Amino acid sequence: MYAHHYWGLTVNGSSETIAIDDLTVEQADQELARLAAILGKANRDYHTADAPTLDDATFDALKRRSASIEVRFPALKRKDSLTDTVGAAPSDGFQKISHAQRMLSLGNAFTDEDVFEFDARIRKFLGFSDNDGLDYTAEPKIDGLSLSLRYENGELVQAATRGDGEVGENVTLNAKTIADIPHRIANAPTIFEVRGEVYMSTQDFAALNNRQLAAGAKPFANPRNAAAGSLRQLDSAITKSRPLRFFAYAWGEISTAFAQTQSGAMAQLKNFGFPINDLTKICKNPVDLVAHYQSIEERRSTLGYDIDGVVYKVDDLELQKRLGFRSTTPRWAIAHKFPAELAWTRLNDIEIQVGRTGALSPVARLAPVTVGGVVVSNATLHNEDYIAGRGGDGELIREGRDIRVGDWVQVYRAGDVIPKIKDVDISKRDANAAPFSFPAFCPECGSAAVREDGDAVRRCTGGLICPAQATERLKHFVGRAAFDIDGLGAKQVEQFYADGWITTPADIFTLKDRYSTGLQQLKNREGWGEKSADKLFSAIEDKRQISLRRLLFALGIRHVGDASAGLIAGHYSSWAALELALTSASIGEGAEWDELLSIDGVGAVMATSLILAFQNDAERASIDRLVAHLNVQDAVKIENVDSPVSGKVVVFTGTMDRMSRAEAKARAEALGAKVSGSISAKTDLLIAGPGAGSKATKAIGLGIKTIDEDEWLALIDGL
Ligand code: IVH
Predict the structure, then answer these.
(1) What was the pLDDT predicted at 45?
(2) Which 8-state DSSP code applies to residue 82?
(3) Which CATH homologous superfamily contains domain 96-337?
(4) Would you call 141 a catalytic residue per the annotation?
(5) If you measure from the C-alpha of residue 197 to the centroid of ligand 1, how many angstroms do you get, rounded to a whole number?
(6) Which residue's C-alpha comes closest to atom 9 of ligand 1?
(7) Which atom of ligand 1 is nearest to the CA of 329?
(8) pLDDT for residue 485
(9) What is the pLDDT of residue 57?
(10) Which tens digits make up the pLDDT trace of 171-206?
(11) Nearest residue (CA) to ligand 1, atom 2
(12) What is the Cα–Cα distance from 290 to 111, expressed in whole angstroms?
């Protein structure tokens, strides 16, 4: 029999569970002791008696309750706390959910000029003249966290956080506690995903922090952190006790269209019972957009909730559809951000960190200072030129003022990014302060740190012998967009590396063979038990099957980010084809090189980096050892089966009259074609407009089918 009754907390004779937010310090202490006793016994029973006394779900629930209490009362954390044991991080408790449609982020505009360029880009893409009407909506950018609510037949069935945009966390129970979120909606499409922002008002935030302080708990840094921390609670009773709110501003999967315009959709969302922001306005041109931005900025401090900019969206949904998306952001929307907040503080030290590609990155250690509600004590200093007062092209920055240890510096935060340094006050400089001398040797392994021509960055030449590079590579390898192994995060990687258990990625996949039995068992190590060790081994096992995109990104090849890895994987489809191409390619010439460059988004720098990684003996040996343990899944091509161009390589040349080149390219890609910039033997189709030159001639020479714009439009008509 499992003992479910452990949920009760006996206080003053009552045995009901007290919400964590309502616990006094004494009650919390008592509750932590009680939970520790139950969990400890359950753990011993599980390991020694082979007769579990608690089922997994109850065990996990109690562990989560204990962890949540520790978050509220960090000082009460017990020595025997199970919270930090691997695989038990509180966020591990949420089920993962794949979004039916990706949750995207927004491109940024920082100046009025950026807004005019946004409008000009859209007009160009759509082939609109300056006189063609083009309406936008402008609305505040709420500083909270995004949430996707899925309604099926009018019933709220699922709520998910954004996560990495593709996979989020299931927070349905928690979302249901938010009063602004309807549980049922009438007359909505059968499948209806509403998206918006969860936030906390400034007033509620202040009251919550007062309660936190009164209870001896750590206050939240700002309303956004408080909202995020409250929504991502494993105990929904805590979420319920927190004053969360919601604004709807977008949607994901919908079974039927429910509006023709963005503004119409907002009105519909309001009808369905969702709060929408009443500062949303239709603007006719960029001048209106900027004017509305200014009026919102003027009211910013009186709104009662935090915003960090204004979001502009093309109003006509048909045009939104034509404009489509870049890899992670829509072409039809942009966030016009408010200027970052600034603060002066003392630069205590400059430290050098060594990254996975060997880059020596200077980091400013600052006297802690509050910037935009967050305490900042580190900032990036980019590279040695930046410290010396020179920009990327040798031009002067900060009028040439260099930065020295001990200086007073001005710090700013823009969004979620690492804080930066804007200026230095040399009038306050100590007479003895010396210019910073950037190291010529790696501080981690002592190898020479060299700066190649044209590279702003000095790099350690130690490669895998450099412990910093090796661990950073491993951390990248297990990261979220890479292998994403549950229970194997940065902390564990460092631990394993320090003990020599894992030095390269391949070692992860032999860990079980080496350490599951015998003297050096993982389960005997500090912080690990049988359960967590088993969990880790099975999480690793799961990842032997991996997508080509994730594998390629995980290799950490310089210049190859997640989006590029996706494009390259989509092009070659299989590991075998990719490996063959990169092994036989020569830098700067030949068919393989041309093919690499034909991939949209791959330039000479990335292509060179890929070839070097596959043709360097040590790198290659490490890759081969890894792949031997894997089953690499072919890239799933986003092909439209009904499209006559799906899987075909097409090239556009000459001018187009009825569609801009950018739109033609985006349409072709949406129909599953690969759009290339140059003609090769692999080209299937050339679309040539007036003025087509050498490409058309080359296509004739190679016998490639050539059509004009009208034939192209006829071919894709109605798709
Ligand atoms: S629209 C496809 N509208 O900003 C575009 N986003 O930086 C969907 N955000 O992830 C987003 N207020 O969490 C949109 N009025 C607003 C917003 C808003 C806040 C957030 C959202 C998004 C992030 C992008």
Answers:
(1) 57
(2) -
(3) DNA ligase/mRNA capping enzyme (3.30.470.30)
(4) yes
(5) 7
(6) 141
(7) 2
(8) 94
(9) 61
(10) 999 999 999 999 999 999 999 999 999 999 999 999
(11) 104
(12) 9
Asked if the model's pLDDT at residue 90 lies above 50, the reply is no
Alpha carbon of 140 to ligand 1 centroid (Å): 9
Average pLDDT, the chain: 88
CATH number of the 547-633 domain: 1.10.150.20
Phi, psi of 17 (to 5 degrees): -75, 130
> Which is the CATH superfamily of the domain at 3-85+340-428?
Nucleic acid-binding proteins (2.40.50.140)
Residue 104 C-alpha to ligand 1 middle, in angstroms? 8
pLDDT value at position 682?
86
CA distances from residue 343 to 49, 158, 423, 427, 519 in whole angstroms, order as listed: 59, 42, 10, 17, 55
**659-670 mean pLDDT:** 85
Task: Give the pLDDT band (50/70/90) at residue 598.
Answer: confident
Distance 249 CA to ligand 1 centre (A): 8
Give the Å distance between the CA of 687 and the centre of ligand 1: 37
Name all residues whose Cβ lies below 6 A of ligand 1.
104-106, 139, 141-142, 146, 162, 197, 249-250, 311, 330, 333, 335
pLDDT of residue 640: 47
Distance CA 524, CA 520 (A): 7
Torsion of CA 300, 251, 180, 16, to 10 degrees: -120
Band the pLDDT of 663: cuts 50, 70, 90.
confident
Q: How far apart are CA 614 and CA 577, in angstroms?
A: 13
- Is it true that domain 463-543 has CATH number 1.10.150.20? yes
Statement: residue 59 has pLDDT above 90 = no
Q: Give the atom of ligand 1 at the shortest distance from the alpha carbon of 145.
A: 13
List the chain domain ranges.
Answer: 3-85+340-428, 96-337, 463-543, 547-633, 649-716
- Check 79, 124, 141, 637 and give the catalytic one: 141
The best mutation among 108, 141, 251, 329 to test binding of ligand 1, ranked by most ligand atoms within 8 Å of the C-beta, falls on 141
The mean pLDDT value for 639-650 works out to 76
Q: What is the mean pLDDT of residues 507-515?
A: 93
**Which protein residue's CA is at the shortest distance from atom 18 of ligand 1?**
141
- One-character DSSP codes across 462-498: -GGGSHHHHHHHHHHHTSTTTT--TT--HHHHHHHHH
Can you tell me the distance from the alpha carbon of 222 to that of 376, in angstroms, rounded to the nearest whole number?
A: 13
Please give the model's pTM, rounded to 2 decimal places: 0.66
Ligand 1 atom at minimal distance to the Cα of residue 140: 15
